[in-house]
Amino acid sequence: xxxxxxxxxxxxxxxxxxxxxxxxxxxxxxxxxxxxxxxxxxxxxxxxxxxxxxxxxxxxxxxxxxxxxxxxxxxxxxxxxxxxxxxxxxxxxxxxxxxxxxxxxxxxxxxxxxxxxxxxxxxxxxxxxxxxxxxxxxxxxxxxxxxxxxxxxxxxxxxxxxxxxxxxxxxxxxxxx
Length: 177
Hints:
The protein is built from nine helices and no strands. By secondary structure, it is mainly α. The chain has one domain. It starts with 11 loop residues before the first helix and ends with a helix. The protein has helices at residues 12-18, 26-36, 39-43, 51-62, 81-84, 91-109, 114-127, 133-157, 163-176. α6 (91-109) packs across α8 (133-157). The model is unreliable at 1-27 and 40-44 (pLDDT under 50).
């Protein structure tokens, strides 16, 4: 997938091969809500994301966890049914992760530095010292999945980021650094 500057999204080809069926149903409503908002309001739309859509996306990307690489270079152990029955992160955190991913997707769509946004976000999550390596890997996957969903949606619409949207997103990213 070519980004604004003609470059391939780093997660694009990996994601297209491995994305699951969660993009239908509730998660599609989640994305529609994000796409319907302007850049700054998408960054603040947290309250508007329906719980069922957030939970659907959180569960759908969980299937990608075996592809994650932990700090020690290993992959997470397969989950038991009991482990799968429990969310890896609370709903409010899942919502925040998805929105952060959408904002990274907006940044990529506008040709801005999404990686600094992502790295700062992950640094803050690690600093919270409440997540296991497996949870941090899942947070990264959930973020990347939300990001690529936004990028794909904009590509399907064939719409380029406007100068005004780029300026708004640049301001948002500068506030986050």
